[in-house]
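Entry, Tuesday afternoon. Goal for today is a structural model of the target with zinc ion bound, before we commit to ordering more compound. Inputs were pasted exactly as handed over by J.K., no edits. I checked the ligand SMILES twice against the vendor sheet because last time a stereocentre got dropped in transcription.
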Amino acid sequence: MLKRTRDLIFLGCITSVTVVFLNCNGGMNSKAKAASTIQDTARVDSIPLMPIADTLDGSITKRLRTKISIEADSLNPISRDSLLKLTKAEQRRVRDSARLALDEKPKHVYFTFDDGPLLGSAAIDSIATAKKIKINAFLVGRHANMSKGLKRDFERYYNNPLVDCYNHSYTHANNKFSAFYSNPVGAYDDFVKNEEDLTLKHKIARLPGRNIWVYEDVRKLDLQSGASTADMLFTNGYKVYGWDVEWKIHGLTGKPLQSVNDIYKSIRRFMDNKNSMEPNNVVLLMHDDMFQNKKGQQLLSALIDSIQVNTDYKFEFMRSYPFRY
Ligand SMILES: [Zn+2]
C-alpha cells in the first residue's frame, strides 16, 4: 500500500514540473511559487489520489467521470497553454488512478438476447443451463403467441432460474420504428400489454430498434425518436437498457459477422478501458434467431468458454445492473 502510494506520488511528480516543486518541496523560485498557487487550487479541486472504496458506493466511478477544472490564478497568472497542460495532466492522473482502482474490483458481463421466443431460444436456454450462467431474454409477446412451439420455448425461459425475462414490447413495433415511437402513449401501452401477456416480473425494458438507456441518473439516446417512450417507461417504474457491444451471426447459416475472438476482444476492450456505459459492466446484445443453427450455437458456447477460461468476469442478470464501485 505504502509502496503504491509512493509510486502514485512519483507519477504525480512527473506529470508536470510544477508538481515536482510542490510535492518534492525544494527551495521554490518565484516561477514555481506562481505555479504552486495554481497547483494548490488543483489539489483542492481534484479528488484525492488514493481512496479505494471497497463498497458499491460509486465513488471510484464518480472519480473516473469527474471533469477536472483548474481556476486561473489572477495574481500570478501562467499562460493559457500551461494551464491547459496542467489541467490535462491532472485529469489523466485522476482517471488513471480511478482505472487502477476499478481494475481491482469485480467485473460483470451481461449476455442479453433479444426478440425471443424464436427459433434459437430453446438452444440458448440449454446452453445457459449447461454452462451454468445467468442470461437475459428481452421478449416479444407476439412471438410467444405465434405457435405452440414458441409458447413452449417462452415457458422454458420463464421457468429457468438462470434466465431473467424482460420486456421488449408486444409487437416489436412491427419493425416500423419511427411510426411506432411517433405515438409514445401507444408504444408505452404496447410494453404494458407485453408485461401483462407474459406476466413479466421485472420492470426492465429494451426498446426495439433503439440503443436507449434511461435508468437511475443516466439518460442516453442513440436517436431522439423513442426518447418519449423511454421516458414514459422510466416515469412508470421501468429501467430502460441498451447495450455496449453487439454480436451478429447469420441465423440460417450460422456464419458470424464478427468471429468469437473479435467479440471476446471487444468485450475485454470495454472492460479494460472502462468505457462501457458503466465501467466494469459490459452488456452484450445478441438475438435469439442467431442461434437456430448448430454452428451458431457452437459459437455461443465458445464465447462463454473464452470468458470463463480467460477472465474472472461474472455473468449477471440485468436486474442487478449496474455494479457501481
Ligand atoms: Zn429487437
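The CA atoms of residues 252 and 293 lie 6 Å apart.
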